[in-house]
Structures are given as structure tokens and as C-alpha cells.
Structure of 1-phosphatidylinositol 4-kinase:
Amino acid sequence: MPRKLESPVHTQMAVAVFKNSLGGEYRGNQSMEGKSSRRRRVFVQTETGCVLGMELDRSDNAHTVKRRLQIALNVPTEESSLTFGDMVLKNDLSAVRHDSPLLLTRNFMHRSSSTPCLSPTGRDIQQKDKSGPIEILSHSSRFAQVKQIVHDIVKAMKVGVDPLPVHSGLGGAYYFRNSCGESVAIIKPTDEEPFAPNNPKGFVGKALGQPGLKLSVRVGETGFREVAAYLLDYDHFANVPPTALVKVTHSIFNVNDGVNGNKQKGVKAVSKIASFQQYIPHDFDASDHGTSSFPVAAVHRIGILDIRILNTDRHAGNLLVRKLDGVGRFGQVELIPIDHGLCLPESLEDPYFEWIHWPQASIPFSEDELEYIKKLDPIRDSEMLRSELPMIREACLRVLVLCTIFLKEAAAYGLCLAEIGEMMSREFRSGEEDPSELELVCIEARMLIAEREVFSPKSEGGIDEFQFSMDYEEGGYAFSPKMDSADFMSGSPFHYGFGSGNGRSPLSTLDESFEEELESEDEEDKRHVGNAAAFERKPSVLKLSASLKNISLGEKKQKHANFTGTKPDNRYLGNTSSGHRSANEQLPVSASFVKVADMNEEEWTMFRDKFQELLSPAFAKRKSITLSQRQSQRLGTSCQF
Ligand SMILES: Nc1ncnc2c1ncn2[C@@H]1O[C@H](COP(=O)(O)OP(=O)(O)OP(=O)(O)O)[C@@H](O)[C@H]1O
């Protein structure tokens, strides 16, 4: 055994800061800041939620990290990968920054709720944790407010003020309090999200890293999205409460026993990676109150944020309302947007914008709002997020870039919030889901760059090879959920707070995905028909561009069906998923009409340019639809604002 692996393990249940052979003891953030850059602390999380803090030095590699995990947590680490966002870490750990959360994932595809939980019992490894009870996983000044709240909570914990569990919502959440007993923060551990191994409300069954409630958002990855929404909310424009990623240690947190998903009793302090958000005192949420009193500017600002981040979960319960005048008259309420865990999906998705039919959303943007939108720079945003949240996936950033470009161009064209939101939303007709107008533009842009590659003299394989690879490299569906629909239906909390506007819910998306999974098996058979058949399909693929050019809203479904079969099978959009998982494992193909992760840098740049070019005709079409709708409904001057 290498010398450094013999060093003592400091851990307390799932808590640990692993001291390496350099012998230094971790004493919190301050001491790390003073140390040389040779030493970095990281937090390694297993798929079942155990967290081990350890200090790395330059000679460390994935193997040594895994060995330490094996010793400290008694978990098998063979056949597993150490991942950091999109990256699978091998020998070189230089990309891993101080305080980064890493994930240990097993390489087998079909994991289920019956997979034994690897949470340590604590008996073998109980030692004192050297780190503080709450540590912000960043030293950025952007989290100054959070730092102050953390300080207050730690003081309160020392005098015995304990957190309280939050009963609403599907995930595990806890109100942490100050010395006066007032709630000052809400903490949501990443391993207690819906379907995550330690969810306290019975919604378990998946490992961290697998597709979650939304198929394009992995289990355990909602925390960094909450932080991303806060970081992107420049000048506190939309009023997102200060949010950070933390490592937090407390006995209140939930740990399930792995086999049945039952709560473990008598568990001592456990460490979790969690989102930490300032608690904002409020009077009610937007589902409890008429929306007509909401200020136009507040609705616009939240809508602008939702569009940029493609929020798939802006239901009324995720808008807190505070009365400013004690009564809550028109304009005298403040809106606080919360719960951004399902934003920035890894591929274009159907967003959920509760505000879409509110009259405020049909009022044109103000000069200030247009100025704010004009100044948005999605490339700069991406760089900022990469630097503040190094685990963020490139696919999420590409979605941010596309949606921000879409917003900027649409606002400059003169579209209002409701029109932009509608263009991003899918339509459901006769039980079928149509791609949104935004997605159609993306499909068209991908078609055009694919055609360009086919006809380019530089194209190496020529048409046959190109077509063959399109047909054979499309995404295999790697994820096989073990829960059946009965499992999903069994918990009434699923009916809580979702999709009140259009009757859709994440549940229906899940059901659809199962159907599509079955269908994709048929597709799989069809794919293995050989090169000749693949070549046969070429003309229809090449014709798609032309056929989509004159697409109208009413024709969308039909045209799309002509292209892809009957469902979104994305022959342009998928990628191979082998028998082994990687950090960049593709999400299920059926989750999206448009993928963004599978393009290389050059394709992505070409795609972005094409996308931008295609926007103005799409906006013109939308404007004419709005006008004709207004005429037919005689709504022209009925607006009350
Ligand atoms: N920043 C905050 N300030 C005050 N209360 C909050 C805050 N964030 C969340 N809450 C309260 O906690 C409840 C649960 O939070 P949240 O909706 O974020 O959890 P969730 O498990 O993600 O819920 P859902 O299942 O609706 O997605 C909210 O309904 C709200 O009442």
C-alpha cells in the first residue's frame, strides 16, 4: 500500500476530512487559504450521498483518491469512475480546484433502488471531523452575504438552536435558524433530492448522477443550479435570494438504509453537500393569492431570468410573495423567486412559466429592462459560471447561451415576455408533444450545418459515411428506471404544486419517457438494418431543411413527425452511450428534441451562428400570429395596465 494511504482517516459517519501523508491538519477555510496551492481540499461524494473531505497534493491521482475512499468509507471502488462535472478524472487531478465536490460513480448501467446503500455505519470510522459545521464551497466575494448568515447559524447551533425540517416539497429541506430562533436559511442536501438515495419523503430509487425528475437534470445536480441562478441574477434584478453550495454537518439530515429506502434511526451527525439559500420572510406564495396585484416590473424581471436559464419549474409555489403595505394592494407586493434546481437542463426542454398567461407578461418591456437585456453577454456568463461553479456541465452552459441569445434577439425585435415564453414552450395536442418554435429553429440550424458538412469538399467520409454514422451513433438509451408507473403514482405528494397552468406535470413527462423508452427499443432494432438501409434514408433527411423552412405552427407536429418518425428520436441529436457510464454520459435521447452536448466546438460555433440567423424569420412569424390572434379575439385594447 502506498505510504500516504496508511495515514489516519478523520471521519464522523459520512463526515470526513481525510488527512494525507503531508500530515497537516485541516482547520477550516482560513488555514487552507494560507497554504500553498500544492494542497487542495476536495469533497468526494459517493452515489449514495456519503461525503468524504480530503486534502490532495500534487502527487495524488484518481487511484489514490479512490483508495482513500475505500479505506475511509468501506466502499468498493473498483469498476468506478471519479468524476468532476463533465470530466472523468484519471491520473491528472490538476483541473480540480480547492473545495470542489467530486462524485464517485460505479460503471454499471442498470442500478436500481435495490442497490445496497453504501452509507457507512460509522462504527468503524468514527473520528472527529476537523472541518466546520457549515463551509461554503467557494471563497468568492459573491457569497459575502451567505458567509454572514452561516456565521449566525453556527453561533446558534453552539447554543443548541437546531434546524427544523421543511415538510412541503418533494425533496429534503431544512430551515436553519439564528440565535433568536428565526429561520435564516433553507438548506437542501443534494442526496435528499427527489429520487436521490437519502430522500426523506419516500421518493428514492436512483443514484446520484442518473437522470432525475426532469430527465435532463441529473439527480444530485439541482444544488449547483440554484447557485447558478443566484450568480446570474446580476444587480439582484430578479430578486433571487443569496445562495451558495455548502458542505454542512448535522444530525438532522436524513440517511436511508440502502435496501428498502427506510430511514436509518439514531444516526449521528452526517455531512452533506447542499444548496444553502437565505430564508426570506414572506406572507404567502403566488398560488395562494390573486396575481393581479403583482408589479409588472417584478413579473418581467423574473420572466427574463426564467428565459435565460430555461427554468422548467416556475410554478406559482416557487414565487414567494411579501406584502409591502401590510395589505398587499396592487403594486405593493414583492416577489421572491425560489427553487431554481430545475433550470439549465442539459438539453433544450419544455420550460414551465407560470407567468405566461398573466396580463403583466403581455406588457412591452420597459426601457430599463431592454437595457438590461441588451447588456447580457452569455459568453461572459458562461465564463463566470465556469469559474464559480467548476462542476457545471458544458451542456448547461450551451443551453444558457442559446436561451440568452434568443431573449436578446427577441426583445430587440420587439417581442414581449409572453410571446417569448410561448415560443419556448412545447404544445401538447392529442397526447403528443410538439417541439417549441425555439426547438424548431434549432432543428433547422442543425440541419443546415449537417448539410454543409455533407456537401463540403473537406468532408472526409462523404455522404454514405456521414449518413451511416448518423444512424448508428445515435444515442442508446442507457437509463433503465426500475420504478414502474405504479411506483410513481403511489405518492400523492406528486400532485403538490406542479403545472397548475396547463395541467401538465413532471409525472406526465416521466410517463412519456417510459413509453418512449419502449419505442426506442423498436427503434434500436430498426437501426441494425445495415448500411444500405441507412443510405436509403438519406434523401428524406436532406429534404428536411426545405420542408421545415415553410413550417407553420399548425403544421409543426406533422412535419416533425415526417422527419423523425412519430416521436422525438433525434437522429441528428443523440450520441452513443456505451455499456459504461462516463461523466459525460448522454441523457436519454427521448428527453429532448434538440441536444447540444454532442457538438464539437467548431460545430457549436457554426450552429450558434446559424441559429442566430434563423431567428428573425421565426420572430416575424410569431408577430403575425399574435396580431391575427388579437384581431380574432378583439383583445387589442383590453389591457388594464
Ligand atoms: N428562500 C426561501 N425563503 C423562505 N422560504 C423558502 C425559501 N425557499 C424555499 N422556501 C420554502 O420551503 C418550501 C420548499 O422549498 P422548495 O420549493 O425550494 O423545495 P423543493 O423540495 O425543491 O420543492 P418542490 O418539490 O416544490 O420543487 C417552499 O415551498 C417555501 O415555502
About this structure: The longest helix spans residues 601-633.
